[in-house]
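Deviations from the work plan: none for this task. Representative record:
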Amino acid sequence: MARKLPSKNVVVIGLGWTGSILSYHLAKAGLDVVAIERGPWRDTATDFPPAYAQDELRYAIRLDLFLRPAQETLTFRNRADQTALPIRNFAGFLPGNGVGGAGIHWNGQTWRFLSTDFRLRSHLTERYGASMLPGDMTIQDWPVSYDELEPYYDRFEKLCGTSGKAGNLKGVKQDGGNPFEGWRSSEYPTPPLKQGLGATLFAEAARKLGHSPFPQPASNLSEAYTNPLGIRMGQCSYCGFCERFGCGNYSKASPQTCVLPALMRLPNFTAQTESEVLRINLDSTGKRATGVTYVDTSGEEWEQPADIVLLCAFALFNVQLMLISGIGKPYDPDSGQGVLGRNYAYQTTSSVSVILKDKVLNPFIATGAHGMMIDDYNGDNFDHSNLGFVGGGYMGAGQTNGRPIQTRPVPKGTPKWGAAWKKATAETYQHAYSLSTHGSSYSYRDCWLDLDPTYKDRLGRPLMRMTFDFHDNELKMSAYLTERLAEIAKAMNPTEMQAHPRKGPYDSTIYQTTHNTGGTVMGDDPQTSVLNRYCQSWDVHNLFIPGGASVFPQNHGYNPTNTVGALAFWTADAITQLYLKNPGPLV
Amino acid sequence: MMDSQTSLRLSRRLFLTSAAIFLTTSASVVHGRTIQQEMPWAPGAADPPAQVRPGPWAFFTSDEAATIEAIVDRLIPPDDHGPGGKDAGCAVFIDRQLAGPYGRSEGLYTRPPFMPGSSTQGYQNPASPAGRYRNGLKALADQVGQSRSGKAFHELTAAEQDKILSALEDGSVKLKDVDAKAFFAMVLQDTQQGFFADPIYGGNRDMAGWKLVGFPGARYDYRDWVERHNESYPLPPVSIMGRADWLSKG
Amino acid sequence: MYRSLALTVLSFAFITCAHAQGATQDFSRIERGRYLTTLSDCAGCHTAPGGKPFAGGVALQTPFGTLIAPNITPDTETGIGNWSDDEFVSALQEGRGRNGTRLYPAMPYTAYTKMTRDDILAIRAYLTTVTPVNHKVNANQLPFPFNIRLAMMVWNWLNFTPGRFVPDPHQSDEWNRGAYLVQGPGHCGTCHTPKTILNADKNDAPLAGATLQGWFAPNITANRYQGVGRWSKDDLIQYLKTGANNATLASGPMVEAVTHSTSRMKDADVAAIATYLLGIDQGGINKPAPLAADNPSMKAGAAIYKDACAPCHQDNGRGSAELFPRLAGSAIVQSDDPTTLGRIVLEGSRAVATSSAPTAPAMPAFDWRLDSDQVAAVLTYIRNSWGNAAPAVTGAAIAKQRTTLAHSR
């Protein structure tokens, strides 16, 4: 039986990006806030100092900063007619763990969605007619517009100190920026990062073919910066240890470098780490959350009552906790009814690798988010009329590292071992570069999340089950984008080039991205969404899921973090400006 | 209560803040960790990897070790480009890894039932890497012993060894109760990881793997070189535990 | 429930003002006393971490043993509730406790003696308003013979000159205010003035830097080589107010001084301190010639610095403002005594966090990565690069420090 703790105003589940942003703003507003995090406390100098942060085996292979499957995992299958089996070792995507969450191990790629992305179904139907969309595609409009979210994108970018070049300032096109981006109220907080040779050659080739390359928006900072919370960040040193690693010199945006120093000073905030929330508790009406129950490291259970519950875990585990807590109607793919677990989506990535024999590329001089990109083939930036698919993605040259356990390109046909392999490896490393596309993943009727009937976690709770595969629309999109990228690659005059468009089926053993989205979708209609436009539960008004990627109705051709951060600020404002004054359903 | 607490802080006048960290041990209070009004920090706090030291095999028997040393030296043969897998410490690396958390599948989801699945669903077998090596090496020794008139793998010529490894790789030779292809893939992966991981783990000795490709290792600052396009980076690789130039000579 | 939630937001700002005020007390005098308590950093020693305010309990390491700061709440049994005003004044000005017992000079009465009776009684007035706490502190844990309080009579006779601060009519009011704060309530010399063998201040070199508690408190005079003479008045003000400036961040024992005292001082008082400190220049510290770059220790140090230190402190030793201390031109880097340098490299250090500079970056520990000779080499390198010059650090000194620190953890 759980022992009851004194009540708090707010209990936050998970202390990553959204949890830390919400905690800061609500504690700053005077509320008594506790954040419960299942992983450990983590900080720069003690957990990933630049003395051992740069350890590829430990962090990139053994996945030291990530969730251990023994603690929590999920089961996976491609299709409903298969038996889902547990992901015993994370590989295809890598959920974070501990204070800072995915904000520690991300690359720093800080993109905004397009304004047409926010009204995707309406826009595509208006432009191409309803028949353009496959019958089983379940994309829907967001309940917020780009214009509404713009000030919140701006706030998250200023929190992070994001480096970049605006392409559209208040509607006026800017040279050197992304000409396709939505309007921005201000320039990026810091100027773009410096670029290496690979990205520079790509940009030249893209320009030659009539495209508009621009520096990728990066939350690895081009120069030292003080954010609006008064926290100081350093200059990125291009060490090439971003994704899967913590940043050792305070130059990559994370809850550690952008929020926690200010948050932890607030006397009305408490972090409770190494404590896992078992469920969200409801009162007898089922319409109001009374708090959460969590289990500590000794296995003892505690009830933490609270007036407001904020679910701020990683996207997949937001869905699991809602399912376990019985909040919202689980989605049934046969009937199409129900909302919880519906519209799970991912990301459709691909690559083109080039070998430039006469160039020295120093691939290890890199950051997670430097590079030159083009956005000509994202969203509906190009005419899809005769293409047979919808969606798109950005593409370009942003190789994030040259770490040799994982980044060891060789010419096509090279044996996998032996003298020939060794020679080719030695001769190619300095002269190879990888270009990539980062494409959308729209939602479908047969891609969803529910509870597994067989497998349980260490606490006896059912694992979540993922049913997901790529659809023809996405594979066609990837083929088209990869062809366009290969055209640019060819203009770089490579010695050798290999194109790798995404092929099905989706393979959970090959890392593609950790952009798992959907399952607790936000929307205007309770029949097709779990949350309203303020990320507030339709069913339980004092429960919010403030912006984790589980609220995305589908995934667009960009990395999710900037939108996640913007929605966190958006929800924080909704709670402090609307909900506290009149607690109840905001829609 | 106060006195016992303060006695623990005798040397900590230095870091007096309003902070309170409770790393609790008593059953009367909440386990886990409650952190308020401080970014926790303690002098000397660090969690570096333990350096692998030369010494006896931690996991392999001497027969297994002889086989593995022979295998890693064929997967990465010594040649004009530099040392092979054996001299680079790949077998030592694998040995220490198998004796540690990796060998035990620590942290992985190992609950039953185990059912065969599609390749997209990943590894679905209760055997840990340590168990797979033990079984795989035994099955290989048996297979070699039978087909090569009692010889051990490491006693064969390089060409014979390569032939067997190729047959494992493409699955054309069968091992008793062992998936030969998967076993080969695991050994290859671990060998290459050892060759390119930080030398602190026992492989990549003298940073041979990094020197082979020109990776500067555990460096953390290339601000001076990011715009030096088309120019090779001039400094040698460095390990977590340093490099020769860190020692005073004179 | 929800109304109360909304109310919480509105009422939060008032919570901290809710302390009861004694009806008969003079409010402005108590407030002045509260501020003087901040200037004097009473809480730094008399409030234990996580303990009740002024209830005592902080351990002070002295060269002769450990002293525990006593309870100074108005509790009549275990605090100072029964003390008369004269007894209180005598404690601060003369170093005499109740009934004439001698205090140990860990209590900085050698500085507080400069304070006016009026200021001291204002502190007294404030302390009578804090919550009385019944908490008995066994203050004296010194070994024989230092546990004999009578010995302090001899010490005082040798080392202690009681007397109030006398303003210098040739100096500005601001300078005099700064001098009063530094010499009196601020008791800066307690850490920063070199000590005699009996641990008394060396009065011929005030504020020229001193080693205590395993740290070197640097020279804070206007000396350009080993002091703060390269800093502008604004640099010094920013440092004291926020704990960080373009050159460095406060860490070690200074964390406590910034947290409890300097960051809470009035702007005019911080400016006065800066004016006074930047006016002190004893001269007489000669910068040596730097060690040659081809010295073997310098060469090893250069390699270590490039690989391990430059990611934060940069190739040019300039660091990054308010984040990574500037090593080039740094006083602490070039101080004769490398105690603080060795300590920071071995076990790391957390900078102070203040509301205007909350970042509080930390230097990681390197004791596991560098052996004592390597620590000495990299310190020798930073002490003799970018225009810096200072004697080499020996591996033996670092090895000794390593052992001492390991015992203290």
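Residues 173-278 of chain C form one domain.
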